[in-house]
Amino acid sequence: CVLCGRTDDCPAKYGEKRTYVEYNLTVHYYCLLMSSGIWQRGEEGEGVDGFLITDIRKEVNRAAKLKCNICRKKGASIGCVAPKCKRSYHFPCGIQRECIFQFMEDFRSYCWEHKPVQKIPDKESRGTSQCTICLDLVEQLPKYTILKSPCCKNAWFHRECLQYQALSAGIFFFRCTVCNNKDKFQKEMLRMGIHIPEKDASWELEENAYQDLLQCYQHCDIRRCLCKKGRDYNEPDSKWEIKRCQCCGSRGTHLACSSLKSWEQNWECVECRSIFAKSGKYSKRKKRSMVTSEKTDGTTCLLEEPSPKCPRQSSGSQCNFLLQSPKIMCQNNLSPCSHLELPTSNRVTMSLSPLMSNRNWSLSKKQLRKQRREVSDILKELKLQVNTKTTRLNINAENIWNSALKGFRQRNFSPTNTIEIKFIKCKNRSKTDSSAASRHHFFQLLMLHLQNSSLFEGSSAKNLSLDFQAIKENLYFEAGKMIAVSLVHGGPSPGFFSKTLFNCLVYGPENVKPALEDVADVDVAQTIKMIKYANSLSSLQSTVHDCYEFLAAAGCLRPITALCDKNALVNDILIHHVIKRIISPLESFRQGLKTLGVLEKMQMHPDAFSSILCHKPERLSAEMICDLFTIHSSSDVNKVEGADFWMGYLQDVESGESVVTLEDILLFGTGSFSIPPIGFDPAPTIRFLHIRYPVGNRLLNCLELPITKTYEQFKNKMDFTIRNTLRVERE
Question: Which residues of 624-653 are buried (b: 16+ CB within 10 A; e: fewer)?
Fold first, then answer.
């Protein structure tokens, strides 16, 4: 190299070594970049990446007069940029002496005495941790060879590991290996001398790197394969079609080899079944598959019915009935439509997602509470992304949607910033309200508006509607984003999602089969009912003829040759109207819910999130309020009956023997009408003090209650203060 004089060819350390025979020139790329007296004065294709050959010659002549402060040889082209520092050195010598070279902006260099160092707070624990790249142990000390992540508290790396990772990942994929932070992480690594090349990742540049992933597993692994053409034979839409394991996808079976009557039936390989059996989950899954595979009469219908001889199953029964393919019915020489001729009163139909076929949505209160506690922990984990930087939203409560939309779309809005709400043109907000209470009230008004907006349709359980103006203005994305932000920032949950909408978000629309109650349009619902309950082939054909234009527009026209064809037709109409018709709004809504990682957590914990998205908040009870508030008492209060008075008062309020409600008590103490899914921060507390009247400290979520001699005094003071305080606020 004409600049450092070394013959080493180590691209990871010194950059690519390039030789230009026509100019009789060899140079390391990093030596050229970091040299102090040269700039890229040419175009990208000129000279050496924009460095003109004449400029390189001049830089070599300039460096020939400078002695390296490390090896004491001439040719030191790099100087320390610290004021008054006159040290010069070769690039390899600087690496050896642990100098810092910043591959950004002006390509500054710092000698071993003036180099930047990472500042570690004294209170942080010192010890050893694991480098998350090479997985070897690393000392938690700020040294040249060891770097700390700026975004994760206990993430430490070897410098060499980080440099290799950066060269491989490039500027588009180099990020913290623990939290995936990109901007903050790259900025700190560049400051500490890690070179991040402006190129795509190495794995993206490799030709056909992902070719293996495009190959589907096509092999029958059943011990006794029945196919005469071999285990690898696969004929779609026949009994010799290969079905892959629904769990791992790495095992397969011919439909005939496992007695599967339809490709839509679920199948699990032996390995996955054994895993579920050990975890205790297989018994539930086995019950689910028995409904589809074990039929007493060998028939398979679109709307499966219990035998008339069997007692009718209750709506909460564990034995739900699944949608099946109509193709199988017509292939059997049995009577596929006999069940459909039962009276309507004897029908028990439930059409859920294949993945949700046995899920019981009538959850008990105990289950709901358990799942909501799980959601609270998940949301608290997501809230760790929120920083202390605040973004103020000026909200007009009388025009909640437009002011919220304006705030969410302002340039400085970030979901990771702490949101501060200021109500304008609103005189009934208490000046004592905490920022959390104002924020909760804002999100409560916003969720109420969304529930009644044109973006959703239905009565209580809602699906997405088709609003072309909303699609044009990207409002479905904004709605999803607002719901995600509300959940993480301490607001209420929507609570109005239908089962079908929730399943589409979590499992994907292709895995969901909607029900008749999902159809909000009265005319469409009536059309479906007429087709569904047609009791003869002639009446079915007449109904289809009357609805010809509607079916043609929906793309649901099909030949009607048997009464059982109505089942497939009903299924087609439901899928078109409830799912395919709103596929664009659904995808936009899903993208909005990805904000702060909410959708990902929904997909990981579907049961827990369904408890808050598909169910309204549980009505407050004395027990819930008692559990919510923690009593803090001093030594002189232990002797009084304050705690007993408090619990007795809650019982009286719940039974209606007070002028206030449990919601009033919660509002008085916290400024919120309901308990948010994430819970309160700080946690609500109660203090018994020698004061005349109770005080609701909403900044601390603290109820300061008076110490009284009798329960009647306590009750009268509570009723009087809470009722009058809230009345004044409302007025």
Answer: bbeebbebebeeebeeeebbebbeebbebb
Higher pLDDT, 325 or 452: 452
Rg over CA atoms, the chain: 35
CA distances from 679 to 379, 610, 620 (A): 9, 17, 14
CATH of the domain at 91: 3.30.40.10
CA distance to 78, 95, 196, 345, 707, per residue, from 18 (Å): 19, 20, 19, 84, 85
Same domain, 47 and 172: no
C-alpha to C-alpha distance for 120 and 127, rounded to whole angstroms: 13
| Residue 300 pLDDT greater than 60, yes or no | no
**Residue 330 covered by a domain:** no
DSSP per residue over 346-363, as a string?
A: G-------GGGTT---S-
CATH code at position 193: 3.30.40
Q: Give the distance between the most distant pair of CA atoms in the chain.
A: 105
Tokens representing 522 are: 């009265």
On whether the CB atoms of residues 578 and 348 are closer than 8 A, the answer is no
DSSP-derived letter for residue 303 is B
Q: Is residue 510 located within the same domain as residue 651?
A: no
CA 430 distance to own-chain centroid: 35
Residue 272 lies in a domain: no
Average pLDDT over the chain, rounded to an integer: 82
Identify which of 255-259, 370-374, 649-653 has the greatest average pLDDT.
Answer: 649-653
Sign of the C-alpha dihedral, residues 551, 552, 555, 561? Answer: positive
What residue type is 90 in one-letter code?
A: H
> If we measure between CA atoms, which residue out of 700, 686, 697 comes closest to residue 725?
697
Q: What does residue 354 show for φ and ψ, rounded to 5 degrees? A: -55, -35
pTM, rounded to two decimals: 0.51
Residue 307's pLDDT is: 33
Cα–Cα distance for residue pair 563/566, rounded to 1 Å: 6
Is the domain of 649 the same as that of 699?
yes
**pLDDT confidence bin for 425, thresholds 50/70/90:** low
Alpha-carbon distance of 532 to 553, in angstroms, equals: 19
Average pLDDT over residues 527-545: 90
How many structural domains is the chain composed of?
4
pLDDT of residue 411: 86
